[in-house]
Amino acid sequence: MASNLLKVPIFSKLPSLAPRIIVPSATYHKERIGNREVVGFGLNGEPSYIDRTDFPMPAIRFKENSQEITALREKEKGDWKTLSMDEKKMLYRASFCQTFSEMKAPTGEWKSILAGTLVAMSLTVWLYVWMKKYVYQPMPDSFTPERKAAQLKRIVDLRMNPIEGITSKYDYENNRWKD
Fold first, then answer.
1. Distance between CA atoms of 179 and 176, rounded to whole angstroms?
2. Under 8 Å between Cβ of 166 and 152
3. Angle 156-157-159 (CA atoms, 0-180°, nearest 5)?
4. Cβ neighbours of residue 156 under 8 Å, at least 6 residues apart?
5. Separation between Cα atoms, residue 79 and residue 63, nearest integer Å
6. pLDDT digits (tens, 9 = 90+) for 109-128
7. 47 burial class (0-12, 13-18, 19+ CB within 10 angstroms)?
8. For range 3-31, the mean pLDDT
9. Contact 141/147 with Cβ under 8 angstroms?
10. CA 26, CA 23: separation in Å to the nearest integer?
11. Confidence class of residue 23 from pLDDT cuts 50, 70 and 90?
12. Is 59 exposed, middle or buried (0-12, 13-18, 19+ CB in 10 A)?
C-alpha cells in the first residue's frame, strides 16, 4: 500500500518517514529535570516538583544530587540513629523545598488584594462623581418632592387603577389613606 502511494507523483516528492528519530519521553524529561531523582508518579504523571498540601508527594526531589547528598543517602540506608539532626534536615531539604507549616503559613497576600479592591472602589466612586457632574444632565422637575406629591394627588383625584393600584389603598369617603 505504502509503495503504491510513493509511485503517485504527488507523494514521491515527500521525504521518507524512515529517517525520523523518535525521542523517548524519558530522554526529554531527563533534559528538563537534570540530575534529580524520580521518586514517584507525581501530580499528573509528569516528573515535576511542586509544593502542595493537598498532594504532598512530588514526582522528583527538590534538589539535584550532589556528592554531599549522595553520601548522606548512602548513610541514611543504615541506622538513622547515627544521623545528626542537621543531616536529617539536609536530607529533608534535598527532597522538599518547604515543610507543611511553611506551606500553610500566611503570606500576607490578603493585604495586596484588599488594597487593590479599595483602590478599584475609590476609582469607581470618583468616576461616578465626575460623570454626575460633567456627563449627566440635571434631573427633571418631575423628580422634586413637590411635583411627586402633586402627581400622587392627581392619581388619587382621577381614581386611577382603583382595584389593585395606589388608589385602592385610599379611602375616598374619609379623604385619607387606609391603614
1. 9
2. yes
3. 60
4. 166, 167, 170
5. 23
6. 999 999 999 999 999 999 99
7. buried
8. 55
9. yes
10. 8
11. very low
12. buried
Q: Which amino acid is at 149?
A: A
Q: Which three cell numbers stand for residue 169?
A: 389603598
pTM passes above 0.70: no
Q: How many CB atoms lie within 10 A of CB 5?
A: 11
- Grid cell of 148 as nine digits: 411627586
Provide DSSP, 56-113: ---SB-SS---HHHHHHHHHHTS-GGGS-HHHHHHHHHHH-SS-HHHHHS--SHHHHH
Which amino acid, residue 15?
P
Residue 177 DSSP SS3: strand
Structure confidence by residue, pLDDT tens digits, 64-103: 989 999 999 999 999 989 999 999 999 999 999 999 999 9
Task: Name the grid cell of 117.
Answer: 479592591
CB atoms within 10 A of CB 58: 23
What number of residues does the chain have?
A: 179
Grid coordinates given for 178: 387606609
